[in-house]
Design a protein that fits this description.
The complex is a heterodimer of chains A (307) and B (282). Chain A is mainly beta. Chain A has three helices and 24 strands. Chain A has one domain (23-252): Cupredoxins -  blue copper proteins (Immunoglobulin-like). In chain A, the strands form eight sheets. In chain A, strands 11-17-16-13-14 form a five-stranded mixed beta sheet, with no helix packed on it. A four-stranded antiparallel beta sheet of chain A has the order 18-7-20-21, with no helix packed on it. Chain A has a four-stranded mixed beta sheet with strand order 10-9-12-15, with no helix packed on it. In chain A, strand 16 and strand 17 (194-199) form a beta hairpin. Chain A starts with a helix and ends in a 14-residue tail after the last strand. In chain B, strand 1 and strand 2 form a beta hairpin. Chain B contains nine helices and four strands. Chain B has two domains: 35-148, Cytochrome Bc1 Complex, Chain D, domain 2 (Orthogonal Bundle); 160-278, Cytochrome c-like domain (Cytochrome Bc1 Complex, Chain D, domain 2, Orthogonal Bundle). The chains are: A mainly beta (307), B mainly alpha (282). Chains A and B meet through helix 1, strand 13, helix 3, strand 14 and strand 15 of A and helix 1 of B.
């Protein structure tokens, strides 16, 4: 048993080292292409409206939320990425535009890559201030003071029309199990919102008006595809690609299971080993043990043994 | 005689020791963290800081159990609540570095040493420098951000021109104050009562209010240099954004300082904390 512990520790240690090193760029031979369409075949939720009470002369009284942009069942603004991919083609260094036009952020949902830049621009004639806030999953476990949208990573004033500001995308900004999505907020105009997912690997995409996305040069193998939409939440799907193939998939958000998140109910045993002793035929044994629900949701324990 | 299993166990232990040592040495030398300094830092923290900032560094110390530690009536009757800093976020207001950066050690040292006016943070000048440096190191253990990135370079504050605080400079600064829309939050008269003043929130969605310049005290301290830094770096985690990119011109920044000094009624006392001035054209 002790031996097993040591071997396990060693495995975890090695695992830790390999994870800590992050993404590795290698030449991808015979990479596969993943062509996908994201659809939603259920009843489309109603398109909400935001009423505006600041700078009404300029922004108007009302804005559409544009939360569900679905035409012909095809869903726009869905972020799709390969979870936890360790190596592959080079990470692109590109600007992620965050443009405020007519008091809203364009594009509403975007992806960025570590090493690139956020490009903030004000196309309006009024003062906008933008706060980019990174969700901190780890912080929920160490602090008794919850965040609203996240911790500020940039707080920039854009007082004049046409001003462009570039700010570096750092490794700390990446989407991981310890952090989360970057939310674009504005203190001067509270309705302004936008989402950016930052990755340290290049295998991610956002769907267009036709609900389509393409991921290229994917090393052959089995992967978990994560799918996020502002209104439908985080979902996942297992995929596998063969060398050199062009795989076409259709993802129906209606059918997919919600992905496990830290907020989902999950069990942690409060002791790592429960010794029930030895029992002979016909004898029974009782033992107390405790479980902790680590998540936010309610946990219902249906069956523990033999599951 | 040893069984093969025992041999394997010994191998595992040896390997593990080697790996642990390697890992420890690497992280210790890479981040320059001296275990003894951290230990001392923890002692200092648990003696002086824990009462407000809490054991976990989240600003929920013994005083923090009362929801708001400090209440203050604003001149206009606004109730002002705030809690001690939450170090678990890795977000700091008082930095000399650009927005989006961690503060430098010297920035943290300054806050620990001088305290923060208009808040509950007292000065710790009486503590030996070694202890203050140790606690700064310890504060960095509360957020994972410190393991991911290094602080950026400080924004240097150029030597102040002799005309800072003059009427002509303040007049130019006023134009900037209007053009850059400082008034939308701080108000035309600088009383913190602009049209956007009542909606500002921090990272938790708690209300924050823009500074009423007529009340005087600045969180960073009273020097014109601190004004210069405040609008240039912005206060991350609060309403005040960075104007580093929208006001890149050094002279213009000093004009804006002049106007804010005028709003504060401090144009005559700018020699406080002065480190020398530049004359126009230098």
């Amino acid at each position: 048993m002790r031996l097993l512990n040591w071997v396990l520790s060693l495995t975890f240690l090695l695992l830790f080292f390999s994870l800590a090193n992050g993404y590795e760029t290698v030449a991808v031979k015979n990479g596969a292409t993943l062509k996908g369409t994201v659809v939603f075949t259920g009843t489309i939720p109603p398109q909400g409206k935001i009423s505006i009470d600041r700078d009404v002369d300029y922004c108007g009284k009302e804005l559409k939320t544009d939360k569900f942009i679905i035409s012909d069942h095809r869903v726009k603004n869905v972020v799709v990425w390969i979870e936890g991919i360790g190596k592959g083609k080079a990470v692109p260094k590109k600007d992620v535009p965050i443009i405020i036009k007519k008091c809203r952020v364009e594009p509403l949902v975007n992806i960025g890559f570590v090493g690139g830049n956020f490009l903030l621009r004000n196309d309006d004639d009024i003062l906008h201030t933008l706060q980019l806030k990174l969700w901190l999953e780890y912080q929920r476990h160490v602090s008794a003071r919850p965040l609203k949208y996240g911790a500020t990573i940039y707080n920039v004033a854009l007082p004049v029309k046409g001003l462009e500001v570039r700010k570096p995308i750092k490794r700390y900004h990446r989407f991981s199990k310890d952090t989360g999505v970057i939310r674009i907020t504005s203190n001067t105009h509270t309705w302004i919102r936008g989402y950016i997912f930052v990755f340290d690997h290049p295998y991610a995409a956002v769907t267009d008006e036709k609900g389509t996305f393409v991921i290229t040069d994917l090393p052959p193998g089995e992967y978990t595809l994560k799918i996020w939409h502002e209104g439908f939440g985080l979902k996942e799907k297992r995929i596998s690609v063969k060398p050199g193939e062009t795989k076409e998939i259709e993802i129906d958000l209606k059918d997919l299971k919600k992905a496990e998140t830290a907020a989902s109910p999950s069990v942690r045993f409060l002791a790592t080993r429960y010794d029930f002793g030895t029992i002979k035929k016909g004898e029974s044994v009782t033992h107390e043990f405790a479980l902790l629900n680590k998540g936010k949701g309610t946990l219902r324990i249906v069956e523990l043994i033999p599951a | 005689m040893k069984t093969p299993f025992q041999n394997q166990a010994i191998y595992s232990v040896l390997l593990l020791t080697v790996f642990s040592l390697a890992a420890f040495n690497e992280s210790a030398s890479a981040q320059g963290i001296d275990a003894r300094k951290l230990k001392r830092g923890r002692e200092v923290y648990e003696h002086y800081c824990v009462v407000c900032h809490g054991k976990n560094g989240d600003g929920k110390g013994h005083l923090g159990l009362v929801r708001y530690t400090i209440q203050r009536f604003h001149k206009r009757g606004l109730l002002w609540y705030f809690l001690p800093a939450d170090f678990t976020l890795g977000v700091f207001k008082l930095r000399s570095t650009p927005t989006g950066c961690l503060p430098t050690d010297e920035d943290l040292m300054r806050t620990v040493t001088m305290g923060i006016p208009r808040s509950g943070m007292p000065s710790h000048k009486v503590l030996p420098e070694e202890d203050r440096r140790a606690v700064v190191e310890y504060i960095k253990t509360f957020s994972e951000r410190w393991q991911e990135e290094e602080p950026c370079d400080s924004i240097s504050v150029p030597r102040r021109y002799a005309w800072v605080g003059s009427d002509t400079s303040a007049e130019k600064g006023k134009k900037l104050y209007i053009k850059l829309k400082c008034w939308e939050c701080h108000g035309y008269t600088g009383e913190g009562n602009g049209p956007k003043a009542d909606r500002l929130v921090d990272d938790r969605g708690n209300k924050v209010i823009p500074l009423d310049f007529t009340t005087g005290l600045l969180k960073r301290g009273l020097t014109p240099e601190s004004l210069y830094l405040t609008f240039t770096t912005g206060f991350d985690g609060s309403g005040m954004p960075s104007y580093e990119d929208s006001l890149p011109d050094v002279q213009m920044r000093w004009h804006l300082v002049s106007y804010v000094l005028k709003l504060m009624g401090r144009t005559k006392s700018i020699t406080i904390g002065s480190e020398g001035t530049l004359h126009a054209g230098e």
